[in-house]
Write a structure and sequence with these properties.
By secondary structure, this protein is of the alpha/beta class. Helix content is 46%, strand content 18%. It is built from eleven helices and eleven strands. β6, α6 and β7 form a beta-alpha-beta unit.
């Protein structure tokens, strides 16, 4: 009887310990987030993605009842910050706010970007897109895409366009236009979009692709002439400027912005993040601030739909990168 009682006591104690452990695990999971969240932005401060990250992080923190801190980790076209997020703990306390040029183009552009955009990440929320604008110096004779295409076909290789550098989105947008419109605009790379814009503003080059937020003030001031936007449809911020697809059917070159978590984050944590982002993006103040920055908010999108968009863009940009010959070791 004594032996049975001793064994029973051990069994009861072991059961209580196991129960307590299960309770602690359950409480830890249900308590997420119990500490601040880090939102990595793999671009420099002041850019479109950084601005979006800071607007979203503030409201997301309120929704989740914790602080969400933005940390910029620029370098290698976004690869540095993306690698950091991919290798972070899989607990939901490190997130990646990124753009399509890093997530969908870099895997084709770099021989070893240091991350796999599909295997290393889980989509949380597609936020919206930012179109690029094909801009011309005010003195450039083309007044429309039709004019530009006619001029370019009449003088192949004669007209130049500036970009922020080899392999950048605005470089590849020009290569896509060359391919789809059967023209030959000559690419002139710069070290960043600011010097590229400056030389077009100064009349040294006639054309440049630039993001809407970076170019809107120049357009409104009449210093640059918008010929078309790269999005499939016209931008609400520039309703009188045609979409490039109106002249070149099928042309699509928007820069999307979205939130990812490292692969391996528990499903319940991922669900809380997705729900938190749904509430954040439904907030009128957040939407107004994003639209003021030229962001076209995405329609409600499931993580599966976001994953499909990433896959489609990876295929599209890989084709453009290959045809352009662009490569960065």
């Amino acid at each position: 009887m004594t032996q049975w009682t001793s064994n029973s006591r051990r069994w009861v104690l072991a059961s209580l310990a196991a129960s307590a452990l299960c309770t602690q695990v359950a409480m830890a999971q249900s308590a997420y987030p119990s500490r601040p969240i880090l939102m990595v932005v793999p671009q420099a401060a002041g850019g479109t993605n950084d601005i979006v990250g800071r607007i979203v992080s503030q409201k997301l923190g309120e929704v989740l009842n914790t602080a969400v801190a933005v940390e910029n980790r620029p370098g290698a076209g976004g690869n540095v910050g993306t690698q950091f997020a991919a290798k972070a703990n899989k607990d939901g306390y490190t997130l990646l706010m990124t753009i399509s040029s890093s997530q969908a183009i870099n895997p084709a552009l770099y021989k070893n970007p240091g991350f796999d955009p599909v295997k290393d990440f889980k989509p949380v929320s597609l936020i919206g897109s930012v179109p690029n604008v094909l801009l011309a110096h005010p003195d450039f004779p083309a007044k429309s895409m039709k004019d530009l295409i006619q001029m370019a076909k009449a003088k192949p290789g004669h007209y130049q366009y500036a970009s922020a550098g080899n392999g950048t989105l605005n470089h590849l947008l020009g290569e896509m236009l060359n391919s789809m419109a059967s023209i030959d605009l000559q690419h002139v790379p710069y070290k960043g979009v600011a010097p590229a814009l400056n030389d077009v503003l100064g009349g040294q080059l006639p054309l440049v692709f630039a993001s809407l937020p970076a170019s809107l003030s120049h357009i409104k001031a009449g210093k640059l002439k918008p010929l078309a936007v790269s999005s499939p449809k016209r931008s609400p911020s520039l309703p009188d400027v045609p979409a490039l697809a109106e002249s070149v059917p099928g042309y699509r070159g928007t820069l999307w912005i979205g939130l990812f978590a490292p692969a391996g984050v528990p499903n319940d944590v991922l669900s809380k993040l997705q729900s938190g982002m749904t509430q954040t993006l439904a907030n009128k103040d957040v939407r107004d601030k994003l639209e003021l920055q030229g962001v076209e908010l995405a329609a409600p999108t499931t993580p599966e739909q976001f994953a499909a968009l990433l896959q489609d863009d990876m295929v599209m940009w890989a084709r453009i990168v290959k045809s352009s010959g662009a490569s960065i070791d």
